[in-house]
Amino acid sequence: MESMSVRNWPVNKTSSKPLCGDDDAHLDPGITADQWLAALPQSAGILYFENGNLSVVAGNRRFLDALVRYRQRTAGKVQEADEWVGRIADFLASGNDALSFEMGRDGKLGPEYFMCTLGRLPADGEDGHKILLTITDRTTERAIEKNLRRELLSDGLTALPNRTGFGEEIDDRLRNNAWPEHAQFGIIAIDLSRFSRVNESLGPMAGDELLITVAKRLKSGLRQGDVLARIGGNDFAIFARLNNGLSDALHIVQRIKEALSSPIRLSGLQIRVDCAIGCALSINLEEDPDDVVRKAQAAVKIAKRSGKVEIYRNGVLKEAQRRFSIESRLRDALAQGGLALAYQPLIHLQTGEITGFEALARWDDDELGRVPPTEFIAVAEESGLITSLGRWAAYEAAQALSRWDAKFGQVIPVGVNVNLSPIQMARDDVASMFEEALRYSGVTGNRLTAELTESAIIADPDKARKLLFALKDLQMPIAMDDFGTGFSNLASLHSLPIDILKIDRSFVSTMLEDRDKAVIVRTILSLAESLNLRVTAEGIETQDLAHALQKMGCWQGQGYHFARPMSENDAYDYWRARWNFETI
Ligand code: C2E
Ligand code: CA
Ligand code: CA
Fold first, then answer.
1. Structure confidence at residue 108 as a pLDDT band (50, 70, 90)
2. DSSP symbols for 397-438
3. Full-prediction pTM beyond 0.70?
4. Structural domain spans, the chain
5. 514 alpha carbon – ligand 2 mean position (Å)
6. How far is the CA of 483 from the centre of ligand 1 (A)?
7. pLDDT score at 490
8. Rounded mean pLDDT of 520-546?
9. For ligand 1, atom 22: residue with the closest CA
10. How far apart are CA 505 and CA 513, in angstroms?
11. How does pLDDT run across 409-433, given as a tens digit for each residue?
12. Residue closest to 32 by CA, chosen among 47, 50, 46
């Protein structure tokens, strides 16, 4: 044993004297040192140390056998014995009663580990010191520890490092590899966009197979020294050494794209792997790798929306953090009734009458302040909160109508338009949502208009068609919002039960200065006429615009010229004031 470098230690004749100690602790003074040692389960021996010389006084069977093997193995190597002499001299000089340490050596079947303990024994009147040495084989424990650790640091499915393992591999590379002076490292984060769909439609086995194949392909494109890890369910990441900064990173991205370009065969189907890629470059080698991984993850989030490879820039992380805090605050706000609807009047352009209001979500948060709807609706869509937000808006709008009716003492001749998000339409049963909202508030369906966008129809035309007909069964009018900005198939418009086209603000607000816009507005108006649809113009900010649209035969208008969105009570007063006026 390396730890027992006692090549030149003579084995003294075994002392038969009983070991001394505290009187009370003596079990039987007749027991000899040999008998004590023999009773110990581990290898144990008594050493004698005097003037830098070490000898073995006694030892149990295991100890003496090991000593023999050790002598055979280390014959001629002085160093190891010296190491022991040094350790024991230090131990004795320390004045401590005991010292434990681990020693390792290369065994026939791999590394072996031993826990050694030195204990000071009474010197028995001799000049030197007696020491009890016990040695316990810890090789098995260490092997178990190692396996557990490997499991802890790697992903069982792909055998790649996991998030923790990735961190350790990076630290190892940064510490132990030689890096040129101005080198950087980069993290490339890869998110398999359609992975959850594969899991849902083909089952988790196919999902696993996909991950394994992707892991293999990504690995095949790696350079030596790069590290690939699976850091989340469908998230992979690569640590790469960059000698030429961004251009190196982009080369790696190119290789990733090539590796994933050909379809993967799964359960008899050819699956194309779509992925979002985000990169972050370290400022220097001192930068905390965890920070760089986080930056790459922020970039990949942006890439999921943009569809392009995104490189982390300053501010991206802030944006991601803001989205994250919007998401968690919005979840609370929805649960605690922290949102409100604002109502913007819809004006009949020929008569000036108020025909209804568009309900627009408003959110004032204690921490974030007033968050614009475009921002929190996008976060709600991304996080799935849009279904509860949409449900809340439909119920609240129907309730507002019934509260206005109650205030007036009879049903008032106005309706409310409710916005529907394409994601909400895909995920929720919107028809039964409206049915319940109407039933609960006692309002008739003809007073609640659904506003949806062209993208909701394009995403799943069959589903959209069914929904629209279900809404018609409830007597609800249907408006096509932001009309002109999407890619509507005009033929499909004709076959769908749509009642109203809302011309997008971007065409209306500048139509008096921009001839092209005016042409578009005219075209939409004549298209609507031939399809028998009514038209609402959004974004009317001036009297001139209101007049021009009125002359063009546009049915309804909405915009700051008439009124901004307002609270439920203000909206009622607004209507009440004008209704009186008109009936006089
Ligand atoms: P949108 O459906 O196109 O709503 C009209 C937007 O134009 C509103 O913005 C409104 O305040 C604004 N607007 C009205 N008149 C004028 C004008 O004369 N000039 C200008 N510059 N703007 C005008 P808002 O309230 O910021 O809402 C933005 C978008 O957020 C809405 O666009 C809609 O897509 C979405 N949104 C709002 N509330 C909801 C909701 O409850 N559910 C869903 N799914 N989306 C909502
Ligand atoms: Ca709208
Ligand atoms: Ca609109």
1. confident
2. HHHHHHHHHHHHTS--S-EEEEE--HHHHHHS-HHHHHHHHH
3. no
4. 33-142, 154-313, 322-578
5. 24
6. 14
7. 64
8. 94
9. 539
10. 14
11. 999 999 999 999 999 999 999 999 9
12. 46
